[in-house]
Write a structure and sequence with these properties.
By secondary structure, the protein is an alpha/beta fold. 32% of the residues lie in helices and 24% in strands. It has two domains: 169 residues, Thiolase/Chalcone synthase (Peroxisomal Thiolase, Chain A, domain 1); 140 residues, Peroxisomal Thiolase, Chain A, domain 1 (3-Layer(aba) Sandwich). The chain contains ten helices and 13 strands. The structure holds oxa(dethia)-CoA (UT7).
């Protein structure tokens, strides 16, 4: 059986750093409040680079690390809720810039779980025998969707991109087990509107419509802890291994306290949970790719290491992937 294995990672963050003290100049907040409630100390905010620019840079680095020519890519999937435009997709823009001349390309929307959904999709394409080499990207410029006067949301998010090159292998390594879920009944927990319906049959709303993220923070918090705990259990069960066999858990980076609670309720030492949210905040579909690339750069992952990637986010969506590192 063919398996999908990760052969390269890349990430890209805008240079512009916005610290908690900087945030306190924009809204009534403090470094103390943000750091103690979330663990976030600073985030990167684009000064003009679009989602496709961040995605392209992360993708370029992932291909370089994988030592793969863009022309050998069969498919590009970009997970994003902040595309440059509805069309062309971010994936098509990146496909052209990379010169990935034979790759199909599409964007995928599963909010902060986007990279997990994209990896699962890539894995299925590879296991079916349809494709050999797939580039998966999570890229966001959430800064353009924030209400910068709402302190309960604007302090949480940042911009960034992470990318992975996934390829077919005959060895039983790489993506070992996958679990995806969605629960539309909780859709009001996290919302970001698109263009409202307006046509000759619908009365137009006055004014310029600027969609911004709204959130029921405490509901999302509880959903996140439950999702992480349940998904870890399920992917371990599917792979017929235990938590002791796992070296690291890389969850979506939203809040230190969410990860702390999830570690406690799953009975797994907190030290196994990788965290970098202090420096980047919540970059939605990008967090897990950025984290993985940082772990690779720090030489934290060796051949045979088993790790679990877990996401949760708007929709509501959630999912996990158990990976044996190549
Ligand atoms: O990708 C998924 C994205 N979302 C998440 O992961 C969010 C999950 N939820 C959370 O992380 C937490 O619920 C938050 C960090 C958003 C909020 O923390 P909390 O401990 O649940 O705070 P809270 O909403 O209960 O608010 C407590 C107080 C309120 O004031 P009062 O009513 O007690 O006087 C808020 O108005 O904190 C106030 N507050 C702030 N104060 C200073 C809310 N935001 C801020 C702020 N600075 N930035």
């Amino acid at each position: 059986m063919r398996h999908a294995t990760i052969i390269g990672t890349g990430s890209y963050l805008p240079d512009n750093i916005l610290t908690n003290d900087d945030m306190a100049k924009l809204v009534e907040t403090s470094d103390e409040w943000i750091a103690s409630r979330t663990g976030i100390k600073e985030r990167r905010i684009s000064k003009g680079e679009k989602t496709s620019d961040l995605a392209y840079e992360a993708a370029r680095k992932a291909l370089q690390n994988a030592k793969l020519d863009a022309k050998d890519l069969d498919l590009i999937i970009c997970a994003t809720i902040t595309p440059d435009s509805f069309m062309p997709s971010v994936s098509c823009i990146v496909q052209e810039r990379l010169g990935a001349s034979k790759a199909a390309a599409f964007d995928l929307t599963a909010a902060c779980t986007g990279l997990i959904y994209a990896m699962a999709t890539a894995s299925a394409f590879i296991e079916s025998g349809m494709y050999q080499n797939i580039l998966v990207i999570g890229a966001e410029t959430l800064s353009k969707t924030l209400d910068w006067t709402d302190r309960s949301t604007c302090v949480l998010f940042g911009d960034g991109a992470g990318a992975l090159v996934i390829t077919a292998s005959e060895q039983k390594k790489g993506i070992i087990s996958v679990n995806l879920l969605s629960d539309g009944s909780k859709q009001e927990y996290l919302c970001l509107s698109a263009i409202p319906l307006s046509n000759p049959f619908v009365i137009k709303e006055d004014g310029i419509f600027q969609p911004t993220i709204s959130m029921k923070g405490q509901e999302v918090f509880k959903f996140a802890v439950r999702s992480i705990t349940d998904h870890i259990k399920t992917v371990l069960l599917k792979a017929a291994i235990t938590a002791e066999d796992i070296k690291y858990i890389v969850t979506h980076q939203a809040n230190y306290r969410i990860i702390e609670h999830a570690a406690k309720s799953s009975g797994i030492p907190l030290e196994k949970f990788f965290m970098n949210l202090d420096r980047y905040g919540n970059t939605s579909a990008a967090t897990i790719g950025i984290a993985l690339d940082e772990m690779v750069q720090k030489d934290m992952l060796q051949t045979g290491d088993r790790i679990i990637l877990v996401g949760f986010g708007g929709g509501m969506t959630s999912g996990a992937i158990l990976v044996e590192w190549n």
